[in-house]
Amino acid sequence: MAERLVVIGGDATGMSAASQARRLKKPGELEIVAFERGHFASYSACGIPYWVGGTVDGPDDLIARTPEQHRERDIGLRMRTEVTELDLDRGRVRTRDLDGGGTETWTGYDKLVIATGARPLRPPLPGIDAPGVHGVQTLDDGQALLDTLRATEGTKAVVVGAGYIGVEMAEALVTRGYDVTVLDRGAQPMSTLDPDMGELVHEAMCGMGIETVRGAAVTGVRTDDSGRACAVTTEDDGEFPADIVVLGLGVRPETTLAEQAGLPLGDAGGLLTDLSMRVRGQDAVWAGGDCVEVLDLVLGRTRHIALGTHANKHGQIIGSNVAGDYATFPGVVGTAVSKVCDLEIARTGLLEEQAKSVGLQYVTVTIDSTSRAGYYPNARPMRVKMMAERRTGRLLGVQIVGREGAGKRVDVAAVALTARLTVEEMTALDLGYAPPFSPVWDPVLVAARKAAAAVRKAAG
Amino acid sequence: MAERLVVIGGDATGMSAASQARRLKKPGELEIVAFERGHFASYSACGIPYWVGGTVDGPDDLIARTPEQHRERDIGLRMRTEVTELDLDRGRVRTRDLDGGGTETWTGYDKLVIATGARPLRPPLPGIDAPGVHGVQTLDDGQALLDTLRATEGTKAVVVGAGYIGVEMAEALVTRGYDVTVLDRGAQPMSTLDPDMGELVHEAMCGMGIETVRGAAVTGVRTDDSGRACAVTTEDDGEFPADIVVLGLGVRPETTLAEQAGLPLGDAGGLLTDLSMRVRGQDAVWAGGDCVEVLDLVLGRTRHIALGTHANKHGQIIGSNVAGDYATFPGVVGTAVSKVCDLEIARTGLLEEQAKSVGLQYVTVTIDSTSRAGYYPNARPMRVKMMAERRTGRLLGVQIVGREGAGKRVDVAAVALTARLTVEEMTALDLGYAPPFSPVWDPVLVAARKAAAAVRKAAG
């Protein structure tokens, strides 16, 4: 009889794993069943802000493969079916049919993939669950938010949190004509950047007419007579009227099932796996995507990083291993890139705080350059901050904030981090040069030269 | 008494070397004299096609630093002064004042930098030196070409050669309203690419209305009664009317002086240096830029690569070493990027022919992808060809042809080549992902996955 693979979660990791396993194993060898509690599968969650902002039509555009297409490939994908319990001892999962009257069923598995993703952080504050308060994690979330926007004769939006999702959503709502206020607990937006670089994002947000309240401690959501959200309150009696509230406080791993089943979780609440993405201590259970922690190769610790590109890699690797082939995920170096308020924002490696937290001593340098030769049309400014380890000169991190042509330059640093290059070695990198692409010294090389000099000076 | 540094050639390498030496040594310690035979110094030769095409105003825009600015920094730059002889035994150079009646003078040196650049290839054919036939290497060349264009009531241009300069110039002349014919000795333009990738450039040239004659063996330039070029002739009685002829046959190192002085030259005619850019066998003579050969780290041999970014690095390194500091140039991996006919064209590492020439066995794969997530506006197609060594799976080369957002992706491969990563290792690279920047699998990762599979298959 065929083995049965059960997949919990029908998005990037789950369906990539199912698809890869199906490529390697015929239906007669491996039965594949996948459960998805939402209305959508195999979609790009990263595209939701662009859908809300109107840059992308969606939601169909955001769907990589429909449930029918999966079924045509002999993947038994069951939509609107929630897994409510995980029975590791007997190798089975209990599911509830969300649309069909809540019927509960047990399904046995030989191999299990947990791909339950993440959920938006929603602090336990008064009114936080009121209608009109939206997280933005799934296509269902995006659809609900758009439904609210269409049903509401509103002009005022409040975004709580200024991480990249918060800033992307603020921009999307400005694009739709809303007056947007961002309530930011920190002093600068984008805590994925050092404060000095985050300040550039703040300036761009101001330039787009986004009002930012810094150091804002949200105390609750006030509701109107109908129970709908109408304002967000903060300490010191702040009150910010809102026709719609968007939560951009980040996400946490969705590991309720895994925790109940006693599977190992890390400090950030994500499942812990080995290099083959198998859950630690388990023979037949794999996990990946937004519900796991990944090894940060620069930090030397696991972290929770919710990112579609990791989720897809995990799915591919899990599918190979489930099917008896071999693949591993060595870890990440902390690369992220986003485009908000006409800025391209990128980082890889460590922030200063992260480096300190693991005992690394470092030097940093910051340089200003341009995306193209200065004389070439549309040369745009960019700022590059580079961090290198004291003594060794090993690259520890790069942050870039600029306009068009800035963001993907971070990839050079991502590969250099992977290869553990020193900034001195980086000064000799043979990067592509022609006037439409770069000044004769690429901005990354300029930063590397300055960083190498700083390392020497710190050593001297 | 101060030592004297003499620099031959006032462009990228020469003036970078002079500037860096001046940063490290005061005038009382080191006197610096630089000789430039042309009318311009410290300019971006790479910008000339954009100047001719009208994208850049120039020539002033192309000048990084004027002779006066150099002199203000105590660098004795003498323009229009040609070095005519190099006397290594007595440590002196003979110069001729080109504008001042040709006066010849000897100048002694303690340290010498040879930065004589390259000259356009000009095969010894009838009429090749006639007025109206132009090379494009120096700002003086660019000025002469523009003078011809302005003085000529012409509509027909012939470009001889389809290297990147030839193709850039063809595009520039089309932009100026000329009917352009490119006479290409090869079967595909851009011999810096494999033929299958070069074919994409040919298609784009056709799309711009550039006529390309493949396999064209030029036999000479026909002149009119006034002695001006009026047509280019080829074997098989081909004759191509031309109001202007541009030579895009590539360049060769300008090493006449060095050769006369008995300095060591490589197979490609460039000066040979050690890792500190000192001429082999010499204590007090350095050389860099377009007149030297560089070590290709992938090929394992020296090559001649005329590229502004190398020239600037060499200058920086030479300046440091001349002044008693320390810097080295470890070599290149063969990266080049250009923008022609609306295409971004990039390569790094080896072509198939190059790999064969040094005995490497390899697999290649080619993939098509896009610059952004498929659903994001302005996602543009790109093709990536990747080569990996048989057995080891080590990356050997990448070629990319695409539209906006394609070219600089080659930098990821350039760093991977430097770090000697395998394509299997590259599949796990943590490259920046967000919908405006990349599909969830970056095109380079897609190519790496396919290349890794090809390596495994070739091993099996």
UniProtKB/TrEMBL annotation, chains A, B:
Residues 338-440 form the Pyridine nucleotide-disulphide oxidoreductase dimerisation domain. Its cofactor is FAD. Keywords: FAD, Flavoprotein, Oxidoreductase, Redox-active center. It holds the Pfam family Pyr_redox_2. Residues 4-314 form the FAD/NAD(P)-binding domain. GO terms for molecular function: oxidoreductase activity. It comes from the Bacteria. The keyword Oxidoreductase applies. The keyword Transit peptide does not apply. Belongs to the class-III pyridine nucleotide-disulfide oxidoreductase family. PANTHER family: NAD(P)H SULFUR OXIDOREDUCTASE (COA-DEPENDENT) (PTHR43429:SF1), PYRIDINE NUCLEOTIDE-DISULFIDE OXIDOREDUCTASE DOMAIN-CONTAINING (PTHR43429). This is Flavoprotein oxidoreductase. It comes from Streptomyces paromomycinus (Streptomyces rimosus subsp. paromomycinus).
